[in-house]
Design a protein that fits this description.
Blueprint (H helix, E strand, L loop, with lengths): L8 E5 L2 E2 L3 E14 L11 E15 L8 H9 L4 E7 L6 E14 L7 E15 L4 H16 L2
Antiparallel strand pairs: 1-2, 1-5, 3-4, 4-7, 5-6, 6-7
């Protein structure tokens, strides 16, 4: 398997990247329900239960970005669902996509330091983990290209 450079990864809301992110953590988990019984021969047995996922991002605040702290706060206040992509922006070889809601967003300004923010997104579904564009985003991608071409 080829090595991936972590500095190539960005978190996107649709096609809009979250700029100036310093780190992003992607976690998936699954509850395991214990079904151990007398027939288990001394072994624990489980079945898969509820799955969940969370994205955590830390970044530097830049209010000129298309997706910045103010927009993140608006998404939280309005309870707007997100379609997120965590992907390698250089060659799109690794794409994790899903839907979710902003669980928490905070901004901190420390003395003699850059203003930064922390963002937590709770996933409500995982669309896929792939090395190709998700089918429902292809039309949006070509529409964006066509619009850019018409504006030249």
């Amino acid at each position: 398997m080829a090595l991936l450079n972590s500095s190539n990864f960005l978190l996107y809301n649709g096609e809009t990247p979250l700029g100036h992110s310093k780190s992003t953590t992607f976690n998936l988990s699954q509850d395991l329900l214990d079904i151990t019984n007398k027939d288990s021969e001394g072994w624990s047995e489980f079945i898969a239960g509820v799955r969940s996922g969370k994205l955590k991002t830390e970044g530097l605040t830049d209010y000129s970005n298309a997706l910045n702290y103010e927009q993140l706060v608006d998404l939280l206040i309005t309870r707007a669902p997100l379609t997120i992509y965590f992907k390698d922006f250089v060659n799109n070889k690794h794409i994790i996509s899903g839907t979710g809601y902003i669980e928490a967003v905070s901004e901190k300004a420390e003395t003699n330091n850059s203003v930064s923010f922390d963002l937590d997104i709770q996933l409500t579904s995982l669309i896929g983990v792939t090395n190709q564009r998700v089918w429902n985003t292809i039309f949006e991608y070509w529409n964006t290209i066509a619009t850019a071409w018409n504006n030249v």
